[in-house]
Amino acid sequence: MQSSSLIYMTSNGIKSLSPSDQVVLANIFHAYENTCISIRNNESPCFPSIVHNSMHEFLNELSTKVPMFIDYFKYVPEFARISMDDKIRLVKTHFGVMININEPLLYPLTSSNLTRTWSNVFGPDITLRLVKRNKIIEQYTIDPILLKIVLIILVLSSDNSRDLDTFDLDVICDDTLFIFHAQNIYVQLLWNYILSRTTSYRDAVKFYNKLIMCILFMSNVDRDIDSHINKCKTEIQQMVPLMQAIWSDSNKNTDESMPI
Which of 7, 60, 63, 164 has the fewest C-beta atoms under 10 angstroms from its C-beta? Predict the structure, then answer.
C-alpha cells in the first residue's frame, strides 16, 4: 500500500465541512491531545522502557497505557451513553485495535526496545508483520485527525471478532442498534473529512479503500496475536488484573479491574 496523496493536500477538496462537522473534529482532536498525548508527554519517551523477555512483563507495562485510551473514548458523547456492560464488552473486544492504532500514534518512531520485545514475546513472523503495520500506519499519522476518527469508529463496533469460534450470543452487545447508529455518525464524519481533503470522488474512494485495507491488515495481525497470547495460560496468570480481564475470560460481561 503506497502513501496516498490525500495526506499531503491542503483543505480545498470537493466538499467543505459543515460547521457542526468542524466542531466535532476539533473536539476529537483536543480530546486526544488532552488524554493520550498529555499523559504520554509526562512519561518515558521510549516504549517499552526496557526490552522484555516475557509476555506478561510486556503486557503489564502496556496496561499502564489502557486508562488513557479509555479516557479518550469518554469524551465521545455517544460512547458515554452506552451501558456499562456494553462499554466493557467494546473495550475488551477491540483492545487489540486500540493498541494497533494508538501505539504508532503515540510513538511514531519504532524503538529498538519494541522490536526486540516483539521478537522475544511473539516470535519473528508476528514481529515482521507488526513492523509492516507500523510502516503502513505511518503514512496516516501525518494527518492530525484521521486515525483519531478511525479509532472511534472501530471501537463503536458491536461485533465479536475476538470470539469467532464461539456461538455465545452474550459476547454481542445488548444495544447493538444504538452502537451501530453511533458508529454511523463517525463513519459519515470520516467520509465528509476525506471529501474535504480530496479533489475528486474517485480520489476519495481510492483513499477510503486503501484505509479499509490497512484496517483489515491490522485486524488480521491482532487476531493472530490474540490467539498466540491465549495459548500462553501461564503468562496470562502472571498478568496484572486488567490484562487478565482482557484475556482470561473474554466472555465475562463486567470486571471491576476495567477502568471505565
Answer: 164
Amino acid at 37: I
Q: Which residues of 73-86 are buried (b: 16+ CB within 10 A; e: fewer)?
A: bebbebbeebeeeb
Q: What's the 3-state SS for 175-196?
A: CHHHHHHHHHHHHHHHHHHHHH
d(CA 70, CA 240): 17
Which residue, chain included where needed, has cell 476495567?
258
Whole-angstrom Cα distance, residue 233 to residue 249? 12
Distance, in Å, from the CA atom of 164 to the CA atom of 109, rounded to the nearest integer, reads 33
CA distance 199 to 135: 26
Residues present in the chain in total: 260
C-alpha cell at 62: 502496556
Q: Which of 233, 214, 213, 223 is nearest to 164 (CA)?
A: 223
pLDDT in tens, 54-101: 999 999 999 888 888 899 999 999 999 999 999 988 988 888 888 888
C-alpha cell at 3: 502513501
Residue 197 to residue 77: CA distance in whole angstroms: 26
